[in-house]
Design brief:
It is a single chain. By secondary structure, this protein is an alpha+beta fold. Helix content is about 25%, strand content about 30%. Strands 2-3-4-9 form a four-stranded antiparallel β-sheet. The chain starts with a helix and ends with a strand.
Length: about 210
């Protein structure tokens, strides 16, 4: 009985305070370690400019011609095949599309400074070959938005988020602007990397590449 009472003894106020401090310190340390591990893991998922072709999808000549029709004021939809490999179905191609807009580094830096500096800086060029391409998925909850020529805006039909042609979030519940995707000219071939980012967060958290 004495042993049972000893286990129930909460201890002196000093002992309780010390135990509480140690518990909080352990939790805080665990959080720091988790973040320090998560950041390089997320960055490692994003393909670098010299990454292998496994992370990239090549555009056909017709798709490249469509890309080149984009202007500084009029984005175009570019459709292409994403090559995927999984343990259930093997290698399959799925059709995806992106929105392309002509832009310069200066224009994008002015409109979207968060993509070039700070915690939301993209780990790959936002502008390449004179274009920026955007994921077609609304950063709010992943619906596919559309370009409305009459308004010269991107509009998500699900919850009403509105974006400029440079992807600036202007209205609606989204927590960030449109997500740029990697584009490159690799050995004379134009290639796009398909990246799925987590929705409904201000940060760019990679869920899937390719």
């Amino acid at each position: 009985m004495a042993h049972a009472e000893a286990y129930q003894d909460p201890g002196t106020p000093q002992e309780q305070s010390r135990r509480q401090f140690m518990a909080q310190a352990t939790i805080a340390l665990g959080g720091v370690i988790g973040i320090s591990l998560a950041i390089p893991l997320v960055v490692s998922l994003v393909p670098s400019a010299d990454a292998s072709n496994d992370a990239w999808s090549g555009l056909t000549p017709a798709e490249v011609d469509m890309l080149k029709k984009a202007t500084a004021n009029t984005p175009v939809k570019v459709t292409f095949d994403v090559h995927e490999t999984n343990g259930y179905f093997g290698a399959v191609d799925s059709e995806q599309f992106v929105w392309a807009i002509r832009a310069s580094d200066e224009e994008m830096m002015k409109a979207r400074p968060d993509l070039f500096q700070g915690p939301n800086k993209m780990p790959y060029p936002v502008v390449n070959m004179g274009f920026t391409i955007f994921s077609p998925l609304c950063p709010h909850l992943g619906c596919r938005y559309a370009y409305i020529p009459a308004q010269k805006k991107f509009l998500c039909p699900c919850h009403g988020s509105v974006y400029s042609v440079l992807g600036v979030h202007e209205a609606g519940p989204a927590l960030r602007g449109l997500d740029p995707l990697p584009l490159r000219d690799y050995q004379g071939k134009v290639q796009v990397s398909w990246i799925l980012y987590q929705a409904n967060t201000p940060a760019h958290v990679v869920i899937q590449v390719g």
